[in-house]
Amino acid sequence: MSTQDIGLDAILGDGAPLAATRTSGEGPHGHLPIDARMLREAPSGDLFGLTQNAGMGWRASEVARDPYLIVSTQGGLRAADGRPVALGLHTGHWEIDRLVGAAAEAFAAHGGLPFSVMCSDPCDGRTQGTTGMFDSLPYRNDAAITMRRLIRSLPTRRGVLGVATCDKGLPAMMLALAGCADLPGVVVPGGVTLPARGAEDAGKVQTIGARFAHGLIDLEHAAAMGCRACGSPGGGCQFLGTAATSQVIAEALGIALPHSALAPSGEPVWTDMARRSALALVRLAATGTPLSRILTRQAVENALLVHAAFGGSTNLLLHVPAIAHAAGLARPTVRDWIAANRATPRLVDALPNGPHHHPTVQVFMAGGVPEVMLHLRDMGLLHLDALTVSGRTVGENLAWWEASDARRRARERLRELDGVDPDAVIMGPDAARAAGMTSALVFPVGNLAPDGAVIKATAIDPSVVDADNVYRHIGPARVFASEHDAIRAIKSKGDDAVRAGDVVVLAGCGPAGTGMEETYQLTSALKYLPWGKHVPVLTDARFSGVSTGACIGHVGPEALAGGPIGRLRDGDTVRIEIDRNTLQGRIDLVGTQAEGDLEVDAAAALLAARAPHPAIAAHPRLPDDTRLWAALQDASGGTWGGCVYDVDAIFETLRAGREALAAKGGRA
User: Residue 587's beta-bridge partner residues?
Assistant: First the structure.
């Protein structure tokens, strides 16, 4: 039916369904399992809850079983046979209702009463280059608050099972559970999408526009590859981006079962993992083990090491501190991240880092997180006595994994199906160093980033790194105040085009400007353009976990907070130096068209005296919701503090503001 065929009668209706509409119904049969003491002492909400349980159809004699709450990020609506009735926003949350179902059945089979609630999540890939990205990072805090409110709204719950997959939904879920750490809790990672045979991966396919604009592919190829990227209807993207890294971190923290991160969505091992996670939660509840015994400082330190060994997404610099803060722990600092990255080289060869770019399902089949942790254990780096949701310590889990049938079967299956040696996917430190896989993260400073910045140094194209393993670049700045203008210049073939040797500077896109948008549209385009490896990117925004190249983000202070990145002009000479041996780096203004070459300190003084770039301003379509988020997280420690809401710090800021207004004779 076309839209022209939808008349007013179709919209208003003729009332025919009223002929079959009831005005009363038969209530559930049976009796509630209550006694006189409950009637005298229990809150009315507890009693009415039992009534609601029976009203929803659960057997009356069982409605007082121990309740377990499943919180998920399920999105979309599927028919019983899996056909789409209403699409979700992304594959990551599309079929996790199957995980919810498997867990619920396990709870019921072991005497529990399962409840399920949902708080769905956005897709960073879908919102790339759009104003939808302005809500991406702020969503995390809001969703965590909503999830915690849902958890507290079932006052009698014995424990919470969190099922989530992707870039912001899974971090939000971890924040939610960490903020309810007085309860037993388990995270069920939602898994990964299978690669599609003969197709591009979900990262590369996001560059079809830029490649077509430069004549690298034709329309037929773009349309075909754009269609075929997903080898299964569910799961997070096939690369080690923020979604996959968040799954890895959940397991490394001990709040997800061993070998649960990166399971292939829809496969038997995936649903089995959900069932076993439910059993783990039942046992945690029976032993009275809350998450506070698992989410400890030692668990966070283990997670930092695992992140370094995987070479994970830089977005976890925002999420791990936030999880720690929600759990009432000290937030890891830049020094902690540096220490973890100096302790271990990257051990995992996965998309997008390379060198052979194995998809995440192959990382899972090679042994996933426990296999990496075996190497870290043998290097003497882990806190082996940290407790996990299996009920065992990290050390006990690893001893089990090393000798397990699960490990043997997974690795054999990888050889059988893909002809891939598991030890070429997850390596020991000596093999990793021999393959050129150095430590992942570097935190450069300089007169353009006095508060710091971050780069995934292992993702720089090796061909532009000098023989001493140092990346050096000096070039003219191309300053952009919006991602739209920057991608237009990257796609352009005219006089305004970005060229090899330029330094793309995207400023004014931090929290106050765009909600600290993710800029994968830029980095992915440069990756697949022949000259793109010769163009570094410098921004106060952030990057997708699948980004590669000399991409320096999180530059602080952000431009709209007076940061010097917001005072650059086209043609200014920028020098970048990233030492992948010492994990040190600098980004500096070292010259201008008017003054010529400058010493670093002289250039810093020039920047301080300059007015901000005239084009830099908060985006006119930045939602008030995001503006409020930006102000609250700024008062709470900002991006390097995890973009959290520190309630005490916010109250103190408001109090100081009221006192300052009162002192000026204003409104207190």
Answer: 576
